[in-house]
Amino acid sequence: xxxxELQEVTAFVQPIAPISxxxxxxxxxxxxxxxTEGFPEPADDGPKKTMEKKALPKMSQxxxxxxxxxxxxxxxxxxxxxxxxxxxxxxxxLYYYREIEVKHARLAMLAAAGWPTSExxxxxxAEFFGIPSVLDDHDRVPSLxxxxxxxxxxEFWGFCLGLTAAIDAFQTQRSRNEMNYTPGDLGWDPLNLAxxxxxxxxxxxxxxxxxxxxxMLGVTGFAVQEAVxxxxxxxxxxxxxxxxxxxxxxxxxxLLE
Length: 257
Hints:
The chain is built from seven helices and no strands.
């Protein structure tokens, strides 16, 4: 290649070089316009479905001197970071224990209402149908600590076991088929109180689990109180189970005496 040929090639290439920078700048501007203006964001049809997660405290709300367990992320209602023994080691285990907690909470709420109700109404109902009452001489209901479970008819035990087995089978099938299954969600809401993906649904879930936890403590207190004191709950605290007029009358008599 001669010197004259190299000079001709250089003269041809040099004018192109200055054009490359404006060209790159033009392409960059065009690309930016395409990404921002050429493809506008879709119109906002309503409130966003996703909500920003609130930052969780590092320490447990239930036990402030312990760190919050890593699996308790606030996803489930009533999560106050209480797992001192570390039972929830993974997501599946956490959901398993929540399912158990919800079941016991619902049973406890039924028991907390049914325990004193049966002590109030069992004798009148038994007398009406001409059958013996299952209450003992102290008006206490049958329980593991009170005894008397043998008085309950086998048909009643069979009905309870059959009903609970059917509900549990339905829950198991639902948990396997639902994509976003929430522990304890049986799809039972005849009054349509809990609309999906709303704050009202979360507040109802929180109210249920909190009342269920309180009921579990209450029923345990019923059983221990009657076993130790040998007195029915309705007789130990009659102010809650008799008309207000009778309570006020007894109070006035006590003051006058």
